[in-house]
Each structure stands twice: as C-alpha cells, then as structure tokens.
C-alpha cells in the first residue's frame, strides 16, 4: 500500500502544502500539517514542502511477467459483422506475435457466432475466444468489460489490442482500470523491443507536435488502443485453421445496469471516410461553406468521399464527421486530394498514410507539399474545375 506521513519535527507550519493540495486534504492543526482521509496521494503537498516534512512511500508491485504470454486482439463486431479495425489489428498483432515467438488470439463477444472464428483465423489469429450470448448482440460496457476482464485475468495475455473506435474507447479503459494496468490510447505505431521483449507504443502527444513512445515495463498486459485505418490488414488466407475456445459469458439479464430501449440510426447518410478508397478534402482555402460544392463535385466525379480540415468544421462549413486529422478521422485511402489545406501536423497525422496524396495549394511553401506525392501550386478555383473536366473526359 502507498503511504503518506508528516514528519512533525520538520513541519514549519508554512501552509504551502495546504495551498497546493487540489483536494483540500491537508489542514493545519496546532501549526502542523495533518493529512485527511480524502488524500489520494497525488504528491502535490510533498513536492511543495520546502522542509521535506511530507514523505510518501510508494510500493511498486511487479507482476510476475513470465506468467503472461500471447498477443490478443479484441474482435469488435456490429450486428454480427466483424469490424474492419479487427482485421487491421490482427495484421499488426500477427507481426508482434511473430517477433515475440508467441501466438495471436482474438476475443469475440457477440450474439452471432457462426463462421466468426474461421474469419478471424483467415486474417491471422491462431486462436479465437468466442463468447456468444443473445445478451451480447449490442455493446454494453458492463457486460463486455466483465467478460474481457475475466478472460484476461484467467488466460494472462502479454499484449491486448483494441480498436480506438467508440466501442473500443469505452471498453479498453474499463478493462484496464479493472485489472489495474496501463493503457496507451490512440497508438499510431507499435513495435517490439526485441531485447527486452516489451511493447513500444507510439502515439502523438502535445497536440501532435511530438510522437511519444510509451512502455509498460512492470505490469501486464500491455494494453493499447489503435485508431482504425492506421495498421494494415494482411491478405486473407481462406481455410487457415486455428483453435476455438468457447467461452460462457456468465452474464444474465439481471446483471444489466443499462437497458437499451431503441437504436436510432442517423437520418442523413453519414460518410464512412475510413472505408473510402478516394477522399477529396477541402480546407480553409475554399473560402466559404458554399464552395464545398466544388469539392463535392470532384469527389462525385471520381467516386470519392468528401473530407475536411478542422478549420472548415470549426467554421461551420461542414459537419464534424467529415473531419480528417488528430481530432477527426484517421484515413488511409488509395487517393487523397487536399484542396486549400495548409498541412498542419494535426491534419497530417490523419491522412499521411494514404497511398497517393495530391495537394492543391496556392502557397508553394505550404507544408502539405512535404507529404504530397503530387503537388499542384495554383488557385483551387481554377485547378479543381479543370480536374473535374479532365476526369469527366477520361471517365466517359
Ligand atoms: C489539439 C488540436 C487538434 C487539431 N485537430 C485537427 C484535426 O483533426 N484536423 C485538422 O485538419 N486540423 C486540426 N487542428 C487544427 C490544425 O492545427 C490547423 O489549424 C488546421 O488543420 C488548418 O486547416 P486548413 O489547412 O484548412 O487551414 P489553413 O491552415 O488556414 O490553410 C489554408 C490553406 O489554403 C491555402 N489557400 C487559400 N486560398 C487558396 C486558393 N484559392 N487556392 C489554393 N489554396 C488556397 C492557403 O495557402 C493555406 O495553405 C487541430 C489543432 C489542435 C490544436
């Protein structure tokens, strides 16, 4: 247990600790600091104390790391269909497992289970834990977190990967908190330190200005969420075999704390940028909302989806689900056309994995040209209509 104590002889009654405590957990009694029960051992008081009168002892619990083996991927599903991020994570998980010389397993929780394991094997899993139940059709945090926590505790994987989707962002921290391990959210790179056999988890930090590599040397499993479309799936190997572990979710309807009354799907057909092979994006350079018609026309001509920079979303020119970048979607299309986008790092982290990038910008020094495969220096109001014309002619 962590512990905090005041060394009375050293305390000068200066009150610095009282002022610094964010929780009001330090008070002065007879001119000496006293720590109250609501202290959460954050250490702010000890740091502030100039006379070294507050001492915190922290007990680092080292898990038996050798007991943890294997790489796991949470196989996210919607309406019984495995989500594409699962295949991407299996592709990455396969590489990590091979480097560690261990097996790759997928954990599926859902109602429909037929054919699921075979699909997971075809994309690289050696083993599939299948927890099927009519109660598991729709995502409910408390059910899914309980099942995954129980499996992780029982089978002890060394790495657990979850998609940084709406579901994954709810599930992964719930599980990590229950098993008291760390979690690196929104990773864009995963590697194995072959010497220490630990997972190096890289993600943008400080507004995308640095890439931080995070390790979890003392605890297991090493848990990470990874954004969709960041990792590449491996080619499907139909007929590839693996081991199926059928799991009883041990959940009953009475365990529910949330009742799902109705699923309301959006009326407007929301673009699925992450699935699009071609994206044409508009930035502040388009000038006003109405000019998105130009971007839409180019996108429609070549069968693409419309993307946007945050500047245009913030200006209210286009809904936020079109936004590409750090606080938007990460996309990886075959072709990404950026029109009037400067190429700030927060935009680039969301699209620089695209196969071919075409940038249209009137400023030749715009940073977007640093990542562009083809750069067109020019006014987008001239270039985009020309592109539309040429594509229409070519596609006739
Ligand atoms: C924490 C944080 C998260 C963020 N997340 C995101 C994110 O997810 N996605 C994102 O996009 N941004 C994000 N941003 C904002 C980001 O820093 C930039 O402000 C934003 O990307 C700029 O958008 P833009 O390129 O459209 O606009 P600008 O930077 O203003 O660039 C407009 C460009 O258009 C060009 N231009 C102007 N007129 C024309 C013309 N007629 N023809 C051709 N070119 C023209 C200009 O030369 C300029 O390069 C984030 C910022 C922060 C701090």
TrEMBL record:
Which SMART domains does the entry link to?
ETF (SM00893)
Q: Which domain of life is it from?
A: Bacteria
Q: Which InterPro entries match?
A: 4Fe4S_Fe-S-bd, 4Fe4S_Fe_S_CS, DHS-like_NAD/FAD-binding_dom, ETF_a/b_N, ETF_a/FixB, ETF_alpha_N, ETF_asu_C, ETF_asu_C_CS
Q: Which GO terms describe its biological process?
A: fatty acid beta-oxidation using acyl-CoA dehydrogenase
Q: What is this protein called?
A: Electron transfer flavoprotein subunit alpha
Q: Name one Pfam family in it.
A: Fer4_9
- Give the matching CDD domains: ETF_alpha
Q: What family does the database annotate?
A: Belongs to the ETF alpha-subunit/FixB family.
Q: Which residues form the 4Fe-4S ferredoxin-type domain?
A: 2-31, 34-59
Give binding positions for FAD: 284, 309-310, 323-327, 340-347, 361
Give one GO term, molecular function aspect: flavin adenine dinucleotide binding
Recite the UniProt cofactor note for this protein: Binds 1 FAD per dimer.
Q: Which cofactor does it need?
A: FAD
């Amino acid at each position: 247990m962590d512990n905090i104590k005041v060394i009375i002889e050293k305390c000068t009654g200066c009150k610095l600790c009282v002022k610094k405590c964010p929780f009001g957990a330090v008070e002065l009694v007879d001119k000496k600091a006293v720590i109250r029960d609501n202290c959460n051992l954050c250490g702010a008081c000890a740091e502030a104390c100039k006379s070294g009168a507050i001492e915190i002892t922290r007990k680092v619990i080292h898990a038996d790391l050798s007991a943890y083996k294997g790489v796991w991927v949470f196989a996210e599903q919607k309406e019984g269909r495995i989500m594409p991020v699962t295949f991407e994570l299996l592709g990455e998980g396969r590489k990590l497992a091979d480097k560690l010389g261990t097996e790759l397993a997928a954990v599926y929780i859902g109602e429909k289970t037929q054919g699921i394991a075979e699909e997971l094997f075809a994309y690289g899993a050696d083993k599939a834990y299948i927890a099927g139940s009519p109660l598991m059709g729709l995502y409910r945090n408390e059910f899914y977190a309980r099942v995954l926590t129980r499996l992780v505790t029982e089978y002890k994987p060394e790495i657990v990967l979850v998609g940084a989707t709406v579901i994954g962002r709810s599930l992964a921290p719930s599980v990590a908190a229950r098993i008291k391990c760390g979690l690196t959210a929104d990773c864009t790179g995963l590697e194995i330190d072959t010497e220490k056999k630990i997972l190096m988890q890289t993600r943008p930090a400080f507004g995308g200005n640095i890439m931080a590599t995070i390790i979890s040397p003392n605890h297991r499993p090493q848990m990470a969420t990874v954004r969709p479309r960041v990792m590449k799936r491996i080619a499907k190997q139909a007929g590839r075999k693996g081991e199926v572990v059928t799991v009883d979710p041990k959940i009953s309807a009475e365990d529910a704390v949330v009742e799902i009354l109705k699923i309301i799907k959006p009326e407007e057909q929301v673009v699925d940028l992450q699935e699009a092979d071609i994206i044409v994006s508009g930035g502040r350079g388009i000038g006003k909302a109405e000019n998105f018609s130009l971007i839409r026309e180019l996108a429609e001509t070549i069968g693409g989806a419309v993307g946007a920079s945050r500047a245009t979303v913030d200006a209210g020119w286009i809904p936020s689900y079109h936004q590409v970048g750090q606080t938007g979607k990460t996309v990886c299309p075959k072709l990404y056309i950026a029109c009037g986008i400067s190429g700030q790092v927060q935009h680039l982290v969301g699209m620089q994995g695209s196969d071919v990038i075409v940038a249209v910008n009137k400023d030749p020094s715009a940073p977007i040209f640093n990542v562009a495969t083809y750069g067109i220096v020019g006014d987008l109001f001239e270039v985009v209509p020309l592109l539309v014309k040429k594509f229409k002619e070519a596609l006739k």
